[in-house]
């Protein structure tokens, strides 16, 4: 049994760092353990121009401690305002400002997603341009509202997208580079196992969808810290996900979807969507890979497959994880004294939850 593992410093293919004081509190946490990340554009206002992406990148880099190298890859939000010319400009990296992806959220889905198209298929000009130049499309693959504006069952949202929208999208734009983000259902996993291809159709996996199923989410009342979209699903879905990552497929990579919220929003009666996992994500991935006997697949999943899709080099630095129990007991606190609780913490988690791997200091 391995007691430690040393891998190239990981890359997070899906990270929310927010803005302002929250950004300054959470960015150093990811930067300490990851060499870089694809930064999500669902800020307020959303990132729709290369100029906004450049300013946002500057804000992220300013929050990275001086001694650390952290490469934020910036993305644009697929809103109705997003212009094909802006995508082209960003992808070309004019004036040293490269944009690496465009993110699509389903209408009405999750935090700050109200600017999206009702259906991704409506964004024809944008998709055509992306296909032409090779700009990756990152998909939050869920259907939330039907044609009559009625809400769909949130547990079916991802499988509806997989059954209907995704095949049509791939058929209409056969050369489009696509990443299906945060897979959560057996149907999505089946689809990706059949159709996934490195550099063309890839997928990301969160630590919380690997670690938990809905028994945890409903353990002793509903667990706000596990409330996210896509919802944490059944034990079967989780097993299916674990079985897939164990295969070490080159088109599957780590995307934490770490998504911090202030305590007041997370623990309100209508708790905000998003799992904040930056303080424990790497450790959770290592724990699951250890449990399924796949530690030999961990480096490709964490550190190689993501950079390869975005066309950047993997890190030249390494990080070592040790098999050693520990627990999160304190929240992250912003400079405005706002508490941000991470998944797995002893107080709001599932109670005395132990993490079995930790990063060597
Ligand atoms: Zn996200």
TrEMBL record:
Keyword Metal-binding included in the entry's annotation: yes
Recorded superkingdom: Bacteria
Residues annotated as binding substrate: 16-18, 42, 140, 261
Keyword annotations of the record: Hydrolase, Metal-binding, Pyrimidine biosynthesis, Zinc
Stored Pfam families: Amidohydro_1
Known pathway: Pyrimidine metabolism; UMP biosynthesis via de novo pathway; (S)-dihydroorotate from bicarbonate: step 3/3
Domain Amidohydrolase-related: from-to ranges: 12-319
GO annotations of cellular component type: cytosol
Enzyme class: hydrolase
Record GO terms (molecular function): dihydroorotase activity; zinc ion binding
N6-carboxylysine modification, residue list: 103
EC number(s) stated in the UniProt entry for this protein: 3.5.2.3
Subunit structure: Homodimer.
Function: Catalyzes the reversible cyclization of carbamoyl aspartate to dihydroorotate.
Name of the featured protein: Dihydroorotase
Source organism of this protein record: Candidatus Kaiserbacteria bacterium CG10_big_fil_rev_8_21_14_0_10_49_17
Organism placement in taxonomy: Bacteria, Candidatus Kaiseribacteriota
């Amino acid at each position: 049994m391995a007691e430690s593992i040393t891998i190239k410093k990981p890359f997070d293919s899906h990270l929310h760092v927010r803005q302002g004081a929250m950004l300054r509190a959470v960015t150093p946490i990811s930067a300490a353990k990851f060499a870089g990340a694809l930064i999500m554009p669902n800020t307020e206002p959303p990132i729709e121009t290369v100029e906004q992406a450049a300013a946002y990148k500057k804000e992220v880099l300013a929050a990275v401690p001086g001694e650390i190298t952290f490469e934020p890859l910036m993305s644009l939000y697929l809103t109705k305002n997003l212009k094909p010319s802006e995508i082209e400009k960003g992808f070309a990296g004019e004036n040293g400002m490269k944009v690496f992806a465009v993110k699509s959220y389903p209408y009405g889905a999750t935090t700050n997603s109200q600017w999206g198209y009702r259906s991704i298929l409506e964004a024809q000009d944008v998709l055509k341009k992306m296909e032409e130049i090779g700009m990756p499309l990152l998909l939050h693959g869920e259907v939330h509202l039907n044609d009559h504006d009625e809400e769909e069952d949130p547990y079916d949202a991802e499988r509806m997208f997989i059954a209907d929208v995704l095949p049509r999208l791939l058929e209409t734009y056969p050369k489009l580079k696509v990443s299906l983000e945060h897979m959560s259902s057996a149907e999505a996993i089946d689809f990706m196992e059949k159709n996934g291809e490195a550099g063309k159709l890839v997928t990301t996996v969160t630590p919380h969808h690997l670690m938990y199923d809905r028994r945890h989410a409903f353990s002793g009342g509903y667990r706000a810290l596990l409330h996210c979209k896509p919802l944490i699903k059944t034990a079967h879905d989780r097993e299916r996900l674990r079985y897939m990552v164990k295969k070490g497929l080159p088109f599957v990579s780590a995307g934490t979807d770490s998504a911090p919220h202030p305590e007041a929003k997370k623990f309100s009666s209508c708790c905000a969507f998003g799992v904040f996992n930056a303080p424990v994500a790497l450790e959770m991935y290592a724990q699951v890979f250890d449990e399924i006997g796949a530690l030999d697949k961990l480096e490709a999943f964490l550190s190689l497959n993501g950079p390869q899709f975005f066309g950047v080099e993997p890190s030249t630095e390494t990080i070592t994880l040790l098999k050693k129990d520990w627990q999160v007991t304190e929240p992250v606190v912003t400079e405005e004294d706002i508490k941000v609780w991470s998944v797995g913490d002893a107080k709001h988690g599932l109670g005395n939850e132990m993490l079995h791997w930790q990063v060597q200091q």
